[in-house]
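Moderator note: this is an archived Q&A kept for reference. The question asked for a predicted structure of one protein chain; the sequence and the answer are reproduced below.
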Amino acid sequence: MVRAGGMFIAIMGAGGVLGALFPRGRRLFLVIGAIVATVAIVTWAARLAAPLGTPSRLQVIFLVGSIGAEAALIRMAAALYRRADERSRLLAILFAVGLHFVPMSVAFGPICAALAVTLCACAGTGLWLRPALPLNRLWASDGLIKIVFGAIMFLAW
């Protein structure tokens, strides 16, 4: 599961970087990234996991649970920041996405936990510590972090 997860995360990161390069298409690139990543994981997950064996029931439960947690966390962030400016709202959502990698680390391992901390630090820095940092710089950083960690996960096994 680690290699397939890394592939998915890296593809999503590429969509994020494209969204930073072309901010007007930010949401479109996220949707395209999600579609490409989903098609890739459906197509390649079994082949990528084959040398490492079948995922355990616990891994599958945490994978599915963390996806559900992500949806709930994004809704919560959007609700908490509904009256905030777009920058703050988007950074809160990126923070929520980072948080969902904590339970996902049960499925994907400690690299995923490090990814969670790094993504939350990036989004949190822009949201609370350095509110003058440009959204595009933070958005690109988030995407690059996902590409790097996704590649590490993909290549580590």
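Archived answer notes: The first helix runs from residue 2 to 21.
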